[in-house]
Amino acid sequence: MADHATTIANYVEFLGKEDKVDDLVALFSDEATVEDPVGTDLKVGPDALREFYGTLPGAGVVGTLIGPVHVKDDQAAFLFQIEAMGTTMTPIDLMTFDAEGKITSMRAFW
Amino acid sequence: MADHATTIANYVEFLGKEDKVDDLVALFSDEATVEDPVGTDLKVGPDALREFYGTLPGAGVVGTLIGPVHVKDDQAAFLFQIEAMGTTMTPIDLMTFDAEGKITSMRAFW
Questions:
Q1: Closest residue of chain A to B75, computed from CA coordinates
Q2: Is A55 exposed, middle or buried (0-12, 13-18, 19+ CB in 10 A)?
Q3: Strands A28-35 and B28-35
Q4: In this complex, which of A70, A73, A79 lies closest to B110 when CB atoms are compared?
Q5: CATH number at residue B16
Q6: pTM listed for this prediction
């Protein structure tokens, strides 16, 4: 399995790439939950994630890992940059991982 | 009550200041938990927090908020910098807050 830092780097790189949506969803476990932004309803499972991440290429999203990336056992927090429609944002994401290295949850602070 | 961003700014500023340990602990609720680093045992309540934060001045800790600070309702995530003993680190902290604006939990990713 990939280490979590590699999974995070792939996650950010795949964001917004039309031909990487399936690869991005494959980073997650089958029961994974996404809370993005924090405070909104959970998106659960591959279909919901594919629908969510599938909207990003149309919005012209480009993700860049600017760090730091902090991994502690099966949890991680990291800072990255999103450029979309002329705006630059710097969200902080939290992730948890299962024993196979799949992302089991993601929570995004904007 | 202070807004959460102000509480976070005070928290980082107070870190490592000998005469600000009590002010720092007063930012937390009486039942607050601190998990620092993530994965270690929780420190719970004012006495445990005073002991924990009371060690920082002796270590020469200086905290600087470098951002971003993301607040969403009663939760926040932020990036800051710690200098101590010639080393610079950039932890990401997560906090939750109660209705009075007191910090109810802090989790630190290093």
A1: A38
A2: exposed
A3: unpaired
A4: A70
A5: 3.10.450.50
A6: 0.93
Residue A95 CA to residue A72 CA, distance in Å, equals 10
The domain total for chain B is 1
pLDDT of residue A71: 97
**In which band, very low, low, confident or very high, does the pLDDT at B2 lie, cut at 50, 70 and 90?**
confident
A34 is in which domain, residue-wise? 4-109
pLDDT digits (tens, 9 = 90+) for A20-69: 999 999 999 999 999 999 999 999 999 999 999 999 999 999 999 998 99
Check if B77 contacts A (Cβ < 8 Å): yes
Q: How far apart are CA B88 and CA A102, in angstroms?
A: 31
By C-alpha distance, the chain B residue nearest A68 is: B90
Q: Which value, to the nearest 10 degrees, does the dihedral of the CA atoms of residues B31, B36, B39, B41 take? A: -50
